[in-house]
Amino acid sequence: MNVPRHTLGTFDAAMTALRNDVLMMASLTERNFQNSTRGLIERDDDACTVAIADDEEIDLLEVQVDRAGVDIIMRYQPVANDLRHIVAAMKYSVNVERVADQSVSIARRARKLNVSPPLQQLHELDGMFSFAAAMFKDAVRCYADGDLDLARTLKMRDRELDAMNGEIAERFVLHIQKAPEFVQGFLNLIFIARALERIGDQCTNMAEDAIYAYSAEDIRHTLKKVE
């Protein structure tokens, strides 16, 4: 069956708009994460406030991606490769939004910490922040560029981040035992580390969505636990 050219052009434009909305979400979320990080490290309440406020725009974009994806499916009834890209975009946007939620959690904890004297142990989280930020950048890149080799590295890197979180939690428990008067501050840092660990989980999901979009391969639950 011959499909009118204008119909194909409209479909291509809709697919491009969907992809652009997803990448815009990712860009705003990266900025959100940077603001929450700055709010914590530099004790900048204004940066925390911006991170929290910007989350609403990311939420709205997620809704827009869902509506656009459903609209494309209903209007054009795409199959095979195109349908995979639509489904993957919708799933990917959910995981991006969850990264933004974790950034907001960090910002909220940071504001609580900022009203008390600074804890020198905060810098023990520097490695986790850098690691999670790099994972997110690569999770975006593998979707934007279709870099499946890069995407396949995210699962094992997430394991490293999990291990870092476990070590941090044990370390801060020892800090609490030595300085119980700072228990609330250390608990906030533990929860921040947990938020970073969850960002790693979402980055892994984002990479899996990219692999599904570009290769139709579902790699969820394929990495066996190493004894």
Can you offer a commentary on this structure?
By secondary structure, this protein is an all-alpha fold. The chain has 7 helices and no strands. The relative contact order is 0.13.
Nearest-integer average pLDDT: 92
Give the fraction of residues assigned to helices.
over 70%
Q: Which residues sit in consecutive blocks of at least 5 with pLDDT less than 50?
A: 1-6
The top-level CATH class is: Mainly Alpha
- Main beta-sheet strand count, sense and barrel state: none
- Round the Cα radius of gyration to an integer and report it: 20 Å
Q: Which class best fits the helix and strand makeup? A: mainly alpha
Principal-axes shape call: elongated
* Topology as a string of helices (H) and strands (E): HHHHHHH
Number of helices: 7
CATH topology: Methane Monooxygenase Hydroxylase, Chain G, domain 1
Total tally of structural domains: 1
CATH superfamily: Phosphate transport system protein phou homolog 2, domain 2
First-residue to last-residue Cα separation = 55 Å
Overall strand count: 0
What portion of residues belong to β-strands?
under 5%
CATH architecture: Up-down Bundle
